[in-house]
Known about the structure:
Blueprint: E1 19-29, E2 32-38, E3 48-54, E4 66-72, E5 87-89, E6 96-98, E7 109-115, E8 127-129, E9 135-137, E10 144-148, E11 151-155, E12 161-164
Parallel strand pairs: 3-7
Antiparallel strand pairs: 1-2, 1-4, 2-3, 4-7, 5-6, 8-9, 10-11, 11-12
Amino acid sequence: xxxxxxxxxxxxxxxxxxxVVAAEVATAEGGRALTVTLHGDPREANRPVPVxxxxxxxxxxxxxxxxxxxxxxxGDSTLPASLVPTSLPSVSSSPxxxxxxxxxxxxxxxxxxxxxxxxxxxxxxxxxxxxDGSFLFRADAGDVRLEANGAMLELRADGQIQIDGDTVxxxxxxxxxxxxxxxxLN
Length: 186
């Protein structure tokens, strides 16, 4: 069995460590945050920080959303090079914020890890992978709608189910049963 290479964790002497902090989305476009402002440190409260990346499973972000970010400090060389562009969208009057061409930042930047729910907001129901390999998506309120290229399957909160598509096929290896108080065909 091949042993994985061990990468030493940097110490404060070798490089500044990233910090996890709360922040607020300051600017956003197309559901992606472009800049955030930091919470907690009054010296940093109004200074926008550019966003390098988002966690994959985040829903669309909007201005004012409170997020948890991994804040990379200037000189942080712990980031994968693929996350460190040579420039970021401007957060000041200059056209771009210069960054090193290596994987070490010259300016602080944020990686968005999570969105904090607003007070009173119910936790989102998600997709659950069950031990038997099946999936469950539960929506305690509201409808569930799946769409693909004009086809649609909708499970409504009132118990109705709607299927819409160019062609609908059903197939059963055994009995294919349709039951209901009243069945209408054409």
